[in-house]
């Protein structure tokens, strides 16, 4: 029983806006299955006395003072934009015609 | 488009159905900087001028949490009688939409900083209704989109969109109620009263500008109906774009009448996001989502967990101000107000203004009469909120003082107030510039009195015969001759003195 189905891979690809062909779905489903199986080995040694880890450093409450620091400025902000208009990022139509 | 025929009469709705409410309020904190970076948190400004590599999610940029925003979140939680998490994390909410340049919003998922609280809400008749709070969590606001090429500036039919990220990353607290049952015919009123009470609370905490018109306080209203006493939960809709207290009430009421009409004909409610249309007071369907939402939340690796110590939480509890409901109770007693008078003040959003005017020297009666009657009229005429009128409580108190000194009559005082509202300066400057001083020069007044008596000899005779009440006609004539700039009391004294 593979740990990830072809349909799940297709769903993830859609969520990530990746155009994946049928052949690629077969290929990636197999590869991802190998990766997930390998990682799941961690689950075999995890016991009740080992809490799940989401952060590599044992720190909490790292806060910043509420003090304004210089921003980039409009020109620099937009410098890397593929398109800009009126000081704003210009993006293609968001909804398709059918919406 | 929903036509009137598609709606059920409201009385019939509440006779046949039980409404269930759920309210989500987003409030922007008015910290100096954004949630995760040092960019200024300011409304407006030239587009994309409060933006840095962190807001833009440039490679290698790392967010750091604004400590004041966390404090504010905890204080909001405490004021809402919530438990404060001992340990919680941020999470990434992944989605593709250009309002966030990161392609995710940093939020909290299953570990909100505050949870399980309540807010007691006072309804119009004084009844207290308890609204249970599910959670309050920290997140960041999104950028602002401008849709170009469509007929109405809407996303539908737009040719392209323009993005300003000044608002992206502004600290946002999302406050979510539990489902609110048992409101029956008062559901729209409860919804409005809840948002109103929450707004007052946030204002008292001084954590936000709470300007619904500017979007610093936003409400999404979830409404569903179930057949009366069936206990079966109906399908809900979520109405967004509700930008005023009045709209909250209208939106809930509209959804109830719309859903009831569909259910009564055996139809099904579509679970969807709807948008409130301010002009028509209706809601319209938003975009249908072709697939279920799948945000793939996961713990934010770039931000360490937050573990507020109990000592810190208790310190913050000590900073909580007097809560609005208690304050109202105290003010009601101090100013000897009736329920109706207090309600007028609350509805006019005038308590702070009146209190500040009292602090500046007026009595509460004088201050109230200015704010809830004359100034309220002016606010309505000018189409602004009372608090947005360009007159300060100190200026109102000054006008009151001038009246009490006898320097202004009530009529002149109103003219002075108009002058202040029209930007002519301080009350004294308006008096000077418009020549509104009470004519207190007895010589000038006596002359006017003599003229009035001479013009109405029969009235003068009556007064001489001891019919003092007749003096009113002469006083009126003098006031008219002096264009209202005389002190009527003084004029009356002079009339009687002249005729005795």
Automatic annotation (TrEMBL), chain A:
It holds the Pfam family GatC. It is an enzyme of class 6 (ligase). It catalyses: L-glutamyl-tRNA(Gln) + L-glutamine + ATP + H2O = L-glutaminyl-tRNA(Gln) + L-glutamate + ADP + phosphate + H(+); L-aspartyl-tRNA(Asn) + L-glutamine + ATP + H2O = L-asparaginyl-tRNA(Asn) + L-glutamate + ADP + phosphate + 2 H(+). SUPFAM superfamilies: Glu-tRNAGln amidotransferase C subunit (SSF141000). The keyword Nucleus does not apply. Its EC number is 6.3.5.-. Signal peptide: none annotated. GO terms for biological process: glutaminyl-tRNAGln biosynthesis via transamidation; regulation of translational fidelity; translation. The keyword Nucleotide-binding applies. Keywords: ATP-binding, Ligase, Nucleotide-binding, Protein biosynthesis, Transferase. GO terms for molecular function: asparaginyl-tRNA synthase (glutamine-hydrolyzing) activity; ATP binding; glutaminyl-tRNA synthase (glutamine-hydrolyzing) activity; transferase activity. Belongs to the GatC family. Allows the formation of correctly charged Asn-tRNA(Asn) or Gln-tRNA(Gln) through the transamidation of misacylated Asp-tRNA(Asn) or Glu-tRNA(Gln) in organisms which lack either or both of asparaginyl-tRNA or glutaminyl-tRNA synthetases. The reaction takes place in the presence of glutamine and ATP through an activated phospho-Asp-tRNA(Asn) or phospho-Glu-tRNA(Gln). NCBIfam families: gatC. Heterotrimer of A, B and C subunits. PANTHER family: GLUTAMYL-TRNA(GLN) AMIDOTRANSFERASE SUBUNIT C, MITOCHONDRIAL. This is Aspartyl/glutamyl-tRNA(Asn/Gln) amidotransferase subunit C.
UniProtKB/TrEMBL annotation, chain B:
PANTHER family: GLUTAMYL-TRNA GLN AMIDOTRANSFERASE SUBUNIT B MITOCHONDRIAL AND PROKARYOTIC PET112-RELATED, GLUTAMYL-TRNA(GLN) AMIDOTRANSFERASE SUBUNIT B, MITOCHONDRIAL. Heterotrimer of A, B and C subunits. It catalyses: L-aspartyl-tRNA(Asn) + L-glutamine + ATP + H2O = L-asparaginyl-tRNA(Asn) + L-glutamate + ADP + phosphate + 2 H(+); L-glutamyl-tRNA(Gln) + L-glutamine + ATP + H2O = L-glutaminyl-tRNA(Gln) + L-glutamate + ADP + phosphate + H(+). Allows the formation of correctly charged Asn-tRNA(Asn) or Gln-tRNA(Gln) through the transamidation of misacylated Asp-tRNA(Asn) or Glu-tRNA(Gln) in organisms which lack either or both of asparaginyl-tRNA or glutaminyl-tRNA synthetases. The reaction takes place in the presence of glutamine and ATP through an activated phospho-Asp-tRNA(Asn) or phospho-Glu-tRNA(Gln). The keyword NAD does not apply. This is Aspartyl/glutamyl-tRNA(Asn/Gln) amidotransferase subunit B. Keywords: ATP-binding, Ligase, Nucleotide-binding, Protein biosynthesis, Transferase. One of its GO terms (molecular function) is ATP binding. InterPro entries: Asn/Gln-tRNA_amidoTrfase_suB/E (IPR017959), Asn/Gln-tRNA_Trfase_suB/E_cat (IPR006075), Asn/Gln_amidotransferase (IPR018027), Asn/Gln_tRNA_amidoTrase-B-like (IPR003789), GatB (IPR004413), GatB_Yqey_C_2 (IPR023168), Gln_synth/guanido_kin_cat_dom (IPR014746). The lineage of its organism: Bacteria, Bacillati, Actinomycetota, Actinomycetes, Pseudonocardiales. Its EC number is 6.3.5.-. It holds the Pfam family GatB_N. NCBIfam families: gatB, PRK05477.1-2, PRK05477.1-3, PRK05477.1-4. One of its GO terms (biological process) is glutaminyl-tRNAGln biosynthesis via transamidation. The gene is gatB. It comes from the Bacteria.
